[in-house]
Structure to design on (428 residues):
């Protein structure tokens, strides 16, 4: 961290007023062998940390803290939920005293602050070190404060700041995150306003918006090149059932569990050429509502939804990249009928190859959810295609007591993703 004392202070060292603390959810709920030692959800742990901070502060103490849950380690793996705490004490304390009072597990996680504004800026990853390391920038609104203003802390008196350099560092970091697929251009507006204030943030957004959009196009192009060369891993979720059984609700809930931005295509219109990618803009999840096998030609369907090979798609006479890694169909047709309608459009109508044509379509619909409504609940039966044996295996079923309840449908979606072994992907 920038401007923090790097060496661990001895417990008998001088008393200091300003400290920077880090605590981790995993290390506080698991033992040294990695076994769960405390049955606390992440929300429970957050509430505990908040209560412990509030109860430990004295009336004139100041504090700013933030929970980080989007950080990525150097090897590309998620860091896990943790909290950073900036303590500005009215009465100086030793490192050992602060560590004990604020429940810090290791002395290394309690460090002396040398520059308050730099330490405060690290909370949202807008310090020089954080920006240079391309860390994810957090919203100012995510910082919780006691007896102080976060904006005042990051612009502390006596610490000269070059506004042009600050803006350049922030916009450069945002551009890097966009180029890596970690951020979407329109998300930059709120981040700039949060970090720079309404007026300056809006001005910077207006001047840099075009650059951010070009960064995103570059990301999409590079991702397409990667897919073309190395292949892809497209997951297809096929949700079937009669009307009013919650197909759309569960599809939407699953989609937003997997990505923060979702592409919802319009339904196929009668006597119209189906162009589901016309509204696509780089999202990692696409939902195709009220899908029908008759909307696709056999070769077209097999090419677009090949789970491993990538191909560019013709959209309104223009080639367009569709780079989603998950597609969700909802349909009133059975899986068999859906496949049959696609196979029927094949140029080859020989009986000898019919089985192979059915298999070519079938293997592109790997994950299946059949929704059936009962008087008191909706039942989602989960199945998965075993490509090696060419058999469909029933995995389990999930019941939803009320498909119109956002809370209940989200619980079901989480359970379904867990049973399918499908995890949340990148922001985009």
């Amino acid at each position: 961290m920038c401007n923090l004392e790097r060496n661990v202070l001895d417990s008998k060292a001088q008393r200091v007023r300003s400290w920077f603390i880090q605590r981790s959810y995993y290390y506080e709920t698991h033992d040294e062998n990695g076994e769960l030692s405390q049955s606390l959800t992440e929300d429970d742990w957050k509430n505990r940390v908040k209560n412990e901070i509030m109860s430990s502060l004295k009336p004139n103490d100041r504090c700013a803290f933030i929970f980080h849950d989007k950080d990525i380690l150097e090897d590309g793996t998620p860091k896990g939920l943790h909290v950073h705490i900036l303590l500005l004490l009215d009465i100086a304390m030793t490192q050992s005293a602060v560590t004990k009072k604020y429940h810090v597990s290791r002395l290394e996680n309690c460090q002396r602050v040398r520059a308050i504004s730099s330490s405060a800026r690290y909370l949202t990853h807008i310090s020089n070190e954080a920006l240079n390391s391309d860390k994810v920038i957090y919203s100012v609104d995510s910082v919780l404060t006691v007896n102080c203003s976060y904006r005042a802390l990051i612009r502390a008196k006596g610490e000269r700041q070059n506004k042009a350099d600050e803006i350049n560092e922030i916009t450069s970091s945002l551009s890097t995150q966009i180029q890596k697929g970690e951020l979407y251009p329109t998300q930059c507006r709120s981040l700039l306003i949060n970090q720079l204030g309404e007026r300056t943030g809006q001005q910077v957004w207006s001047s840099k918006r075009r650059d951010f959009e070009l960064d995103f196009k570059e990301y999409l192009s590079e991702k397409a090149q990667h897919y073309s060369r190395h292949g892809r891993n497209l997951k297809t979720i096929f949700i079937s059932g009669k009307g009013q059984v919650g197909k759309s609700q569960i599809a939407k809930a699953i989609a937003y569990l997997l990505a923060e931005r979702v592409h919802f295509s319009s339904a196929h219109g009668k006597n119209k050429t189906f162009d589901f990618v016309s509204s696509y803009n780089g999202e990692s999840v696409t939902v195709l509502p009220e899908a029908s096998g008759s909307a696709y030609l056999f070769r077209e369907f097999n090419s677009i939804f090949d789970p491993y090979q990538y191909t560019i798609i013709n959209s309104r006479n223009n080639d367009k990249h569709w780079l989603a890694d998950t597609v969700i169909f909802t349909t009133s047709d059975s899986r068999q009928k859906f496949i049959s309608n696609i196979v029927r459009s094949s140029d080859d109508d020989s009986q000898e190859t019919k089985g192979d044509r059915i298999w070519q379509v079938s293997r592109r619909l790997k994950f299946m959810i059949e929704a059936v409504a009962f008087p008191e609940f909706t039942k989602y039966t989960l199945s998965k295609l075993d490509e090696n044996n060419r058999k469909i295996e029933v995995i389990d079923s999930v019941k939803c007591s009320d498909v119109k309840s956002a809370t209940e449908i989200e619980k079901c979606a989480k359970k379904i993703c867990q049973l399918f072994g499908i995890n949340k992907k990148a922001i985009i």
